[in-house]
Write a structure and sequence with these properties.
Order of helices and strands: HHHHHHHHH
Number of helices: 9
Strand content: under 5%
Largest sheet: none
Helix content: over 70%
Structural class: mainly alpha
Length: about 200
């Protein structure tokens, strides 16, 4: 992981803020290092004067959208089962993760795309069910950009403010992520319980 982070820093320092977009796009499609590390690192690099803070956020959001569109088209072209089979062949990805994202998308629709960009572990995968479901492209781009902008800005700003302590962001986001997972689980249980009640009454 250290080698990957060193490469990310090299790219950002060599080509500036577009390097942030490149790193974010790659992280979205093929996540050897989570955005919880890449984005605060981008903020820290910005604090050292290698590029502007606003430019980093803009390029990171553009990179997120580019990566999400690639996954969207993958889902649209391959369908669910073939996409799951492909996910099993990609390091750090599993077919079960794809199926969970599809199920979550089916229950929440547009909100899944917007809020999914704010949930670690779901951020990238939520683009695939959107493609499988053939969500209107303009709608997908709008909600993906909005969600990505909030996520990217928050983590880049945190890294910018923390400076050399940027790595502390990952631990904090991990704790928040656990809370989010618990809340999502509660929502799923409530939804399932309501549906069962309707079936029993019917």
């Amino acid at each position: 992981m250290d080698a990957v982070l060193d490469w990310v820093v090299l790219v950002m320092r060599t080509i500036g803020s577009p390097g942030v977009g490149l790193a974010t796009a790659l992280e979205t499609v093929f996540p050897p290092v989570p955005s919880e590390l890449v984005l605060p690192l981008a903020g820290y690099t910005a604090s050292q004067g290698h590029y502007g803070l606003v430019a980093a956020i803009v390029w990171a959001t553009a990179g997120s959208l580019a990566g999400a569109l690639l996954l969207y088209w993958l889902g649209a072209a391959w369908g669910l089962e073939r996409t799951c089979a492909l996910a099993d062949r990609i390091p750090l990805m599993h077919a079960d993760d794809v199926r969970k994202a599809v199920a979550w998308f089916g229950d929440h629709g547009r909100a899944a795309v917007l809020l999914g960009r704010l949930v670690p572990g779901v951020r990238s995968l939520v683009s695939i069910p959107a493609g499988v479901d053939r969500m209107p492209l303009a709608t997908f781009c709008l909600f993906t950009t909005a969600g990505s902008l909030v996520w990217n800005a928050a983590l880049i700003l945190a890294g910018y403010e923390l400076g050399a302590q940027w790595h502390r962001v990952e631990a904090y986001v991990g704790s928040v992520g656990n809370v989010v997972y618990v809340l999502l689980a509660v929502v799923v249980v409530v939804v399932v319980a309501r549906r069962l009640r309707h079936r029993v009454r019917g």
